[in-house]
Amino acid sequence: MSLFKSLVNLAATAGVAGAIAVSPIFTLKAEALTEAQVLERLGSIPVFTITDDKGSPLLGAIPQQPNAKPDDSQLLFFFLGPDEAQMMLAQVQKSNPEVGKKAQIVIRSMNDAYTVIRQNKDKKIVFQFIPTKASVESARTILTAQGVAADKIPNVPVFFAIGGQANSQGLLTMSIDQNGKKEQVVPFFLDKTDLQNLLDRAGKEQPDVAKTTKIQVASLFQVLDSMVSKDDKPNPEVERFQFVPSRSSFEYILKNTKQSATPQIAPQTTPQK
Description:
Blueprint: H1 3-12, H2 35-41, E1 46-51, E2 59-61, E3 74-79, H3 82-95, H4 97-100, E4 104-109, H5 110-119, E5 125-130, H6 133-145, E6 157-163, E7 170-171, E8 174-178, E9 181-189, H7 192-205, H8 207-211, E10 214-219, H9 220-227, E11 241-244, H10 247-255, E12 269-270
Parallel strand pairs: 2-12, 3-5, 9-11
Antiparallel strand pairs: 1-4, 2-3, 6-7, 6-10, 8-9
Helix pairs in contact: 1-9
């Protein structure tokens, strides 16, 4: 069974963790999900990139492999965690002080990132989303325990929970207040720790639910693909999928709210060490 069918079937199963309620974070109104509408939902996922003082992203050279043909393509990184972006900024400042003294971390949404990618699809630029180290390690731990090979670990993992008995499992849902109306959403967390904290809190009030709930992992891009309506018809189950940014990203954003205009690609290369 495909990931899409598995997720839809689980979401359609009623009665699993339905009473869990948390405060909404970056929630969006459910609509019929065309590709454009799915991309709009990416506005809930913050990304961090390195730019110069004018907001133009810094581009890195692709490392040359032995005996490989020369490649003058450039790299643009979108980090899903502020810590990884800060590490890259420190590397730029160390390897090229002249460029580094003007470099900065800029906060965008993944929707903005895809806009940049579409606008520059004909240029020799390789775009890469960099997950947090913690999320990759969490995904590796979960999937290794399930017998999944290391090379099958998602490039950008997201975490969700399933619960219930073997013959009636379903996806964990959260109750949120959407314009004064209670709605059930299926959350996908970018940080496993945030999901675990939610389950720990819920377990104090709903121990039976907590005992049968397990955290699973999937590829963000596969989930996004599953959300796109293949025939432009609404799917009420997939419409409930929502993404929850990491707490560390949210806290970083609160501390760094001053942002420049949406950057345009500039042919500036960050030297590699």
